[in-house]
Each structure stands twice: as structure tokens, then as C-alpha cells.
Amino acid sequence: MEKINIITIDSTTSTLKIGILVNNQKKIYDINDGFNHLENIIPTIDDGLKLLNADKKDLTCLSVSCGPGSFTGIRIGIATMQALSYALHIPLFGFNALHIYKGLINKPQSIIIPVVDAKKKCFYCSFLNSDDDNSYDYTPEEIYEKLTRFQCGKEIIFTGQDFILAKEYFDEKKLDYTWLFPQGFTANSMLDYSINLVANGNPGIIEPIYLRQSEAEIALLEKKANHLLK
Q1: Which residue of 35, 68, 84, 129 is 20 to 30 Å from 155, comparing CA positions?
Q2: Residue 1 resides in a domain
């Protein structure tokens, strides 16, 4: 592929992450906007390109986080980037945000487990550097059970801010582990991951990874459904 000029976004959590690279110059945004992503994505992209003295026509590709995360957040991010991809006639790459940690932690002999709160006392997680690095919706008990099946002696590394919600359980089990990146990954880390994704020719299938809906989202959907039935 030609020179990589890219915009990557993650709108799956309450923090909107946008990374822009044009002509080897970066602009990074980590915006805690409380899920007001729809109003902020395009203005932030325009602001970043302006500060880089660049134009959307300079872009060669795009990438977007497909989750795991908020149903609405994922849909907003994917729809926005698909529209830009179509308008600019450039490829769009999708990625699982949990896999970013594999690039951040250069320990191929360790089991890296990013965790995201999936509600109902469950966590969406991956077991990176294992034989199976797909993502699953597990309880802490199921995570522990799976870890006991891995080869003994491997270092266990949990990542992400939501691990705090499961930490007590693993401490009670006296599991030997390390917790890295308790604030999660940044837009800059995401941009570096996306650049490597594109450079390696990974097509990055656009496939949403939804968490289970929160009680508030379920209540809102029920309210809308009842309103339609009246």
C-alpha cells in the first residue's frame, strides 16, 4: 500500500478516541464526552485535519473499533466511518479493541487478558497469546477455570480499567497475576495498532462486537416499544 494517511476511531465507550496520521504527522484525541459521540466525531476529525494542514482527500484508509462496547457507540462509529469510506473511495479496516493490548505488551509467552464489563456480573474478554484469542462473555469463575487449563508457569496479565470489578474474586483465589494499563489504552496506542494493521495487509472485517445491554438500555427500549404499541 502507498503511504499510510489514516483516521482511526473508537466510539465504543464513554471516551471517544480519534487518531489521525497524515504525512507522518499525528493528531490525537481522547475525549470523555459521555457518549455524545455522534455530535463530536466529524467536528473533531475536521479540527484535526485542519491543524495538520490536511484534507480528507489526503487520506488513504480508515479504521474503526468494532467493539466490544456499547451497542449505540459501536453503530455510530461504524456507520460514520463507512460513510467516509464510501465518500472518499478508500478502504475501511475494522478491529477488535481488545487486541490492541497485544501490541502494547511485548510478552509473547504471557497470557494477556483484557476485560470489559459486560454487566450481569460478566466480562467480555480475550486470552491473547493463547491457542484461542477470540473474545468471550465470561463470569470471573469461568475466566479462572479457563486459566487453570493453560500451561503452568505462564505469566498472567489482566488489562483495562474494568478489571477492578473482578479483582477481588481473583485475589480471593490467590491467583498470581499482573494488572497493566488500568486506565485502558489511548488513542495514540490505537493509532499505532491501526497503522500496523494496515501495513500488514490485514483486511480487518467490519463485524460489531456487542456487549450485553445495560438495564438502562433495556428499560429505554421497552419504553419505546410500549410507546409504539399505544
Answers
A1: 68
A2: no
Q: Indicate whether this model's pTM tops 0.70.
A: yes
Q: What is the reported pLDDT for 35? A: 81
Q: How many CA atoms lie within 13 A of 164 on its CB side?
A: 6
Q: Are residues 105 and 180 in contact, defined by beta-carbon separation less than 8 angstroms?
A: yes
Q: At 59, is the pLDDT very low, low, confident or very high (cuts 50, 70, 90)?
A: very high
Q: Is residue 34 part of a domain?
A: yes
- Look up the CATH number of the domain holding residue 153: 3.30.420
> What is the mean predicted confidence (pLDDT) over 44-70?
96
- Supply the range of the domain harboring residue 16: 6-97+185-226
Q: Is residue 43 part of a domain?
A: yes
Residues 154 and 42 in one domain: no
Over the stretch 72-127, which tens digit does the pLDDT of each residue have? 999 999 999 999 999 999 999 999 999 999 989 999 889 999 999 998 889 999 99
